Amino acid sequence: MADFHQSGSVATLHNLRTLDPAAMARELETIAVTRKIVLILPSLYSELEGEALPAILDELSKVRFISRIIIGLDRADAQQYRDAKAFFARLPQEHMVLWNDGPRLTAIDERLKALNLSPQEPGKGRNVWFCMGYALAQGDSAVIALHDCDILTYDAALLARLVYPVANPNFPYQLCKGFYPRIADGKLNGRVSRLLVSPMLLALKKVIGDHDYLDYLRGFRYPLAGEFAMRTGILPDMRIPSDWGLEIGVLSEAWRNLSPKAVCQAEISDRYDHKHQPVSEDDKTTGLSRMSIDICKALYRKLAADGTVFTPNLFRSLKATYYRTALDMIEIYAHDAAMNGLSVDRHREEATVELFASNIVEAGQIFLENPMETPFIPNWSRVYSADPDLMRDMAAAIREDNAEFG
What InterPro entries does the entry give (predicted)? Predict the structure, then answer.
């Protein structure tokens, strides 16, 4: 993916393979002396038993520019939390494990519920939000980075390239989004990005017309990447979704809060593979089917907030336009795969597009029936305004958990 292409809407920082990754890491170590860099790892307990996370810890153990690692642990009982503490103990960096299901953080969540500020549903968004709150409560970081715990192709250079654009004080960027090619086992992956988001953005442009927000999203090479880094100063005012629209939601918040010149994307890996979600054709509450509905709703909410009027007829036109656009893109992906010795299952891809087309309309119906739905979690500035002691008490609860089970 080494090229010079710029979309014009978002700065794209390429990997031209001319710099030794160790040199970038050394520069980051110098920067980190005065600009503390913190890493957030949202994790399910089950990922501790998987193939990816132990290898990720092997790589993180080599990293010297990260000052603190915050691990958000979901779906764990007391013994599993104790096991997680032991699992992460080999990290040389200062680290803290948030027991999201433990009694102390549950009590913090009850305080938030009493204020109508609690995340509405469990999941990655909620996990990340609590980790961000803890990072803000520490008050000593300049940069926050985030990546998933199921990356099978992880190396330390990925993290360095992710944080460098926002850690370097001579760069103007407040947020950096990672991108990479999604290939593994001789085939193209990244189904939701390729088969839903890309053709959906093109279809929206055809149906509702030119829109700066759509051009902004189209500028990202991989908008659904779970890896991003940001300067800590933007965190207090950032609202993130609690559903599967997290990645689109973060980009939308950056669009709302920042100048486009303050946002960039960086090529962070030559290859990337992680745990694959099932399509879940028969259950729209899980898998890629649920993800497609949440992403569509995230797009509709943002466009409606910017003045777009949605009607049932518009959603029907959008479905037809998307479907034709997506089928054309499947053919292009098949040609691209063939040029690189990769394979694409045309039948499977077209069946997935048919499911996504149906979900575009279903997401529209949900949006029209409940236009006041607000899956965004309140930002931490609002939490602090409502309960100035909560962040401090949350940090104390996390320390007490770690001390008791340490």
Answer: Nucleotide-diphossugar_trans
